[in-house]
Amino acid sequence: MRKTTSINRRNEVEHIATCPLAAAMAVIGGRWKPMILWYVGHGLDRWASLRAAISGASDKMLWQHLRELERDGLLLRVVEGRRVRYEMTALGRSLQGPLAEIEAWSRASRIGERVVGNMPRH
Fold first, then answer.
1. Do residues 96 and 107 share a domain?
2. 41 domain residue, yes or no
3. How many CB atoms lie within 10 A of CB 57?
4. Span 49-68, mean pLDDT?
5. Is 108 helix (H, G, I), strand (E, B) or coil?
6. How many alpha carbons lie under 13 Å from residue 118 in its C-beta half-sphere?
7. Residue pair 32/68 in contact by the 8 Å Cβ criterion
8. Domain containing residue 2
9. How far apart are CA 73 and CA 19, in angstroms?
């Protein structure tokens, strides 16, 4: 983990405050957040179903990202007795269109094939 100095932190905060893309990435950036938002938006609203769908994420990272998305107002954690489910807030639902556009771009550009093709082979 890199050490963050107060100057670096001030620069980061200023950048997020003045750059809309940086602000968006501060909230939805990360390896698993877009996938969590996509799956919750498409009905996978329980921990076990999200864990199965996002098999590469560790339990710790999945929990952390769910908490951050809740903190940032994109997801709502709903407790029903002993069961917990997640649902999109209005702000989270507003991302479904952009996520669908990214998915369509990925399919059209076949970027997944390029990424996989460029991965080192062991």
1. yes
2. yes
3. 18
4. 94
5. helix
6. 5
7. no
8. 1-29
9. 19
Q: Quote the mean pLDDT of the chain.
A: 88
CA dist 89 and 84 (Å) reads: 16
DSSP tag of 118: T
Q: Name 89's Cβ contacts closer than 8 Å, sequence gap at least 6.
A: 73, 74, 75, 76
Residue 39 is assigned to a structural domain of this protein: yes
- What is the pLDDT, as a whole number, of residue 4? 58
**pLDDT, tens digit, for every residue of 80-120?**
999 999 999 999 999 999 999 988 988 888 887 877 777 77
Count of domains in the chain?
2
How far apart (Å, rounded) are the C-alpha atoms in residues 46 and 38?
13
| The predicted structure's pLDDT at residue 2 | 54
What type of residue is 12? Answer: E
User: Where are the alpha helices (H) located in 1-122, listed in sequence order?
Assistant: 6-18, 20-28, 33-41, 47-53, 59-71, 90-93, 96-109, 111-117
pLDDT score recorded for residue 75? 97
The pTM for the full model equals: 0.81
Is the separation of the CB atoms in 74 and 37 below 8 Å? yes
What is the structure's pLDDT at 11?
79
